[in-house]
Amino acid sequence: MKPATLLTAIVLSTTALANGVLAQNYDVAILNGRVMDPETGFDQIANVGINNGWITEITTDPIEGANTIDATGHVVAPGFIDLEQHGLSPFGIKLNLRDGVTTQMDFEVGAINITEWYLEREGKLQANYGTVVGQEFARMRVHDGLALEGPNVSMPYFFDYRAAAAEDGVDGWSVTRSNLEQMNEITAILDEGLRQGALGVGSTIGYAREGITTYEMFEAQKIAAKYGRLTAAHHRFHPSASTPIETATGANELLTNALVLGASLQLHHTNDYGWWEIEEKMQLARAQGHNVWSTWYPWTAGSGNYGASILAPDNWEDSMGYKYEETIFDPQLDRYVTKDEFLEFKESEPGRTAIAFSPPREQWIQDWIKVPNFIISGDGMPGLNEKGERLEWDSPFEDYAGHPRSAGSHAILLRLARENDVPLMFTLSQLSYWAAKHLGDAGIKAMDVRGRLQEGMVADITIFDPENVTENASYSKGKNGLASTGIPYVLVHGTIVVSDSKVLKGVNPGQAIRFPVEETGRFEPSNKEQWLRTFTIDTGGVRPTLYEDILDDQSSLELPQSPEPVEYRVTKVELPATNQQDWFAQPNAIDESELFLCPIHGVFEDKATAQQDWAQALIVRNSNASIYDPLLSPGTNSN
Question: Which of 157-171, 277-291, 306-320, 548-562 has the lowest mean pLDDT?
Answer without folding.
Answer: 548-562
